[in-house]
Amino acid sequence: MKKYIIAGLSVSVILFSCQTQQKPEVSKEEIRFGYQVYKKSCASCHWETVKPEQIRDIRKTVRAGGRPPFGAPPMSEVSARVKKFYPTEEKFVAFVKDYITNPSREKGVCMPMAYKIFGVMPPIGKGLSEKEKEAVAKWLYYRYKLTWEEFMRKHPH
Fold this sequence. Notes:
The chain is mostly helical.
């Protein structure tokens, strides 16, 4: 009987501790700082977002052999695509920090057409501090809410 009481208490303690653990919060200052890092280091290639009608026009241009008006996929698309493979904040942030520092097609999660159009991004993370990489990754995670499936429904091919 004593064994069952101890086991029951252990389970209760574990359940209680799991329920009371809070997800670390991201501050507005960190998000603002992440946006500043985006503007300084990413915006020259990545637009923040593209409207569905713009996507249709851009796809027509690309199919006709032209180039899109930006040098890399929009951040709204990047965020949705990375979340498909790394849905938790912790994994998403770790992936982004690693990828922007040491990008490669092998570890990337882009659609094949994105690589054909844009290639692999340069290692811009090598010029950023850990604080900057963390902040821009968190900004990217929290700024956009759409899942990959929702993004594709909103921007059909």
